[in-house]
Structures are given as C-alpha cells and as structure tokens.
Amino acid sequence: MLRVGVIGYGYWGPNIVRNFHANEGAEVVLVADKSANVEARLKKAHPSIPFTTDAWSRTRAPTWRRDSKRLIRQYRSRPTPWKF
Fold it and tell me: What is the spatial distance between Cα 65 and Cα 3, in angstroms, rounded to a whole number?
C-alpha cells in the first residue's frame, strides 16, 4: 500500500486527492495547504483525510515517522505557471 501526502489543495489538489483516494493501491494519509480555508472543501469531499497547514513539521516529526500510517510519498501540487 502506497501512503501519500498531498501538499497543495488549490486548483489541481482536489483532482489529485480524488485519484489517489480511488486507487486501491494507495491511501491518502495527509493533505496540507498553507491556507486554512481549503480544509472545509477537503472535509466535504473526504471527511476521513487529515488536514494541516504545516506540512513540514507534520511529516518530519519523530512521532509521525514512528506511526503505523507512516507517510511514504509526498505529492506537491504546484501553481499552474510553475508547470510550463
């Protein structure tokens, strides 16, 4: 099982979370975004997925790494202008 953390829940983030969430071989264990306003959108679509505004401390904390739901892969969703 691939455990995924998605950093950035702006324009593409909801699509990325939806696709990983629908994949039987993946589990979205964390969504992070610097704007706390997007938490309501995430909770409406996926109430079981945890949200944070501080991805760095959450994914690097020693207690998180020892957790049985350890984050294996991060996916960073970047603003559209960065992609071209």
Answer: 12
What are the extents of the domains in the chain? 2-83
What pTM value is reported for the model? 0.72
DSSP string across 30-60: EEE-S-GGGHHHHHHH-TTS-EES-HHHHHH
- CATH number, span 2-83: 3.40.50.720
- Name residue 35's amino acid: S
> Which candidate, 59, 61, 65, 75, places its Cα nearest to that of 21?
75
Of all residues in the chain, the percent with pLDDT exceeding 70 is: 67
The 10s digit of each residue's pLDDT in 10-23 is 888 899 999 999 99
Looking at residue 58, what is its pLDDT? 60
The three-point CA angle 34-27-67 to 5° equals 80
Task: Say if CB 77 and CB 8 are below 8 A apart.
Answer: yes
